[in-house]
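Q: We require from you a single protein entry containing the residue sequence and its fold in token form, and nothing else.
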Amino acid sequence: MVEDPAAIRLVLVGREAAKCLEALAADGGSVLAVFRRSAYLAHAGSGAIACIGPAALGAGPLNALTGPDEAMPDWGESGLRPGDPVAPRDGGLRIGARRVLTFARAKLHDPPRGPREWTGDGLAAALARLSDALSGFDLSEGVAPLARPENPALPPGSRLLRRAQPAISELERWLTDGAVASPPRGAVERLIGLGPGLTPSGDDYLGGAMIALSMSGHPELADALARLALAAAPAGTNRISAAHLRAAAKGLGADALHRAMDALARGDGPALAEALRGLDAIGHSSGWDALAGAVSALKGIGRRLRAQPARSAAAVSAAPALDSATTTPASRSVST
């Protein structure tokens, strides 16, 4: 196959985007949304979505990116419109009437995923390092203030955060209490779709929490949270944000979030600083909203881990009394 020199060449493709592109190359689809820097493509049969954009968007599960030197069109002014056809074309795709996309040589993005085994003290130290690393960043929008591990004061006038905080507090209590198997459904439903933008802050928060739980070695908690979030997403948020939530349910999110969690676990300060700069570049506050969810998850896990020795000791000390309580009635029944 001779590659069209005018084609847009993708070099790095997320796992969910790769599934979408393969499905589109088989039987086509349509343009879902068009923005200045990116265009979203959708495959009707599977519901898969891919975001086509420049390297500056950052790697992620739905992103299909060009190289840093690749010229990209201004999609908003290119004449492309939602609903335009996406058709197979000689191993690639034709988007609308004029754009050709190739991805045969693209690399599959594979972020660090863990799991990392934490101790309560280890998590506390990691979150302290994160607090220091976040100094200098503006975390005032969305639920971003909660990305600071120390109990942050709510910014004045932050109506969205004040609406979100009761639900977030319920989720944090669930994360802390190992005896409660299922997350609070109402809290998850209140967060789904909460906030403006393509990926609302509440969705980003839940996705970040799922990814942190998966990466920290608690897949059962991530799965429990994912079940409620995915059940609420179809009616509660838009298709693109729902696709990001489905990816988060598989432990996949923005590359910068994965690298931040990995750097925290390894105690790598320079890598953490670089990852935080990457989060700062994602959306209006989406990167920080996702980090806020991750921090809530790690704080809850840390409290749970620190409480385990005390719970175990209490169980041991209560064992004689429990034995007495369970055996005495039986002995009485024999004697009578």
Summary: The chain has a mean pLDDT of 87.
